[in-house]
């Protein structure tokens, strides 16, 4: 059995990445950029480089153009290492965000810097969280994180911290440490909102109790390159014989797993829990 996106699912994902790109652009152009508060990841890097080129060179490169330029090599790498569907929707998400960054005027809604930091973070991260929840990403560090999570079973928070610290320190040195501190407020708010909408964990363990084990295993293997451990199970109330499938996946594969379970066995019981670490075989390519 090969579970593919039907027209309805494809349209829904396009709509979600459209909304995600729009929310990201609104958060940046109406709140973060006017207040000189920097976003995280490649969006923050693009924002910072745009400000530097405008102030210290005769040229001006917009945040949107820089954002898509920074993402092109990452998307090419993801196409080879991650998977075509995830990469395609991630690139569409980046394209929508770039388009809206260019269309929406940079205009301050409020002159209160902390309101800009908080509301900019909430709106932009809502777009990121929705995009992640439906099996895509907003490019940049999300894709880098996914590749790193497949290459090595080590915490990748250090990479996020190092990258964002570089943005904060550079912004602080150039434009004052007050703006850098408000950037930390924005990063904290963004992290909390994304965690609330999606999940903070890079790897999760799914335990699926089903009466249709063979079909579900086949469908999962047709879409995800992940090992599955099967455990015999019996319903305590019904005394029915069932099967529990246990597998470790990355958070970027969670949407596809949910879609497969819903289509093959909508009555299956699934428990998704945090995975702190993985010892032994975990497919990384």
Number of self-contained structural domains = 2
The radius of gyration is 21 Å
Output the strand order for the largest sheet. 2-3-1-4
Low-confidence stretches: none
Largest pleated sheet: 4 strands, antiparallel
Helix content: 55-70%
Q: Structural class of the secondary elements? A: alpha+beta
Strand element count: 4
- Any idea what the shape is? elongated
What does this structure look like?
By secondary structure, the protein is α+β, with helices and mostly antiparallel strands. It has 2 domains: 7-197, no CATH class; 203-274, Alpha-Beta Plaits (2-Layer Sandwich), CATH 3.30.70. It is 62% helix and 11% strand. The chain is built from 10 helices and 4 strands. The protein has helices at 7-35, 41-56, 63-81, 84-103, 113-133, 141-151, 157-175, 177-197, 213-223, 254-264; strands at residues 203-210, 229-234, 241-250, 269-274. It has a 4-stranded antiparallel β-sheet with strand order 2-3-1-4, with helices on one face. The longest helix is centred in the N-terminal third of the chain and has 29 residues, at 7-35. It is elongated and about 70 Å long. The two termini are 22 Å apart.
């Amino acid at each position: 059995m090969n579970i593919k996106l039907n027209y309805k699912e494809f349209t829904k994902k396009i709509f979600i990445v459209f909304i995600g790109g729009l929310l990201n652009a609104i958060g940046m152009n109406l709140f973060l950029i006017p207040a000189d508060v920097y976003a995280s990841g490649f969006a923050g890097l693009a924002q910072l480089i745009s400000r530097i080129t405008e102030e210290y060179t005769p040229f001006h490169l917009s945040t949107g153009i820089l954002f898509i330029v920074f993402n092109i090599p990452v998307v090419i790498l993801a196409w080879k290492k991650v998977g075509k569907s995830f990469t395609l929707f991630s690139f569409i998400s980046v394209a929508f965000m770039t388009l809206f960054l260019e269309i929406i005027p940079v205009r301050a809604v409020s002159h209160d810097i902390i309101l800009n930091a908080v509301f900019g973070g909430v709106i932009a991260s809502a777009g990121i969280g929705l995009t992640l929840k439906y099996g895509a990403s907003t490019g940049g560090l999300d894709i880098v994180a996914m590749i790193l999570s497949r290459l090595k079973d080590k915490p990748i928070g250090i990479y996020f911290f190092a990258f964002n610290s570089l943005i904060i320190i550079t912004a602080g040195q150039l434009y004052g440490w007050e703006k850098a501190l408000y950037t930390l407020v924005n990063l904290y708010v963004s992290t909390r909102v994304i965690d609330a909408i999606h999940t903070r964990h890079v790897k999760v363990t799914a335990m699926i109790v089903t009466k249709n084990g063979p079909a579900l295993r086949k469908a999962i293997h047709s879409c995800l390159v992940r090992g599955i451990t099967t455990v015999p199970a019996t319903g305590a109330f019904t005394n029915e014989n069932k099967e529990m499938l246990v597998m470790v996946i990355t958070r970027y594969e969670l949407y596809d797993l949910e879609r497969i379970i819903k289509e093959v066995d909508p009555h299956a019981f699934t428990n998704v829990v945090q995975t702190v670490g993985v010892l032994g075989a975990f497919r990384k390519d």
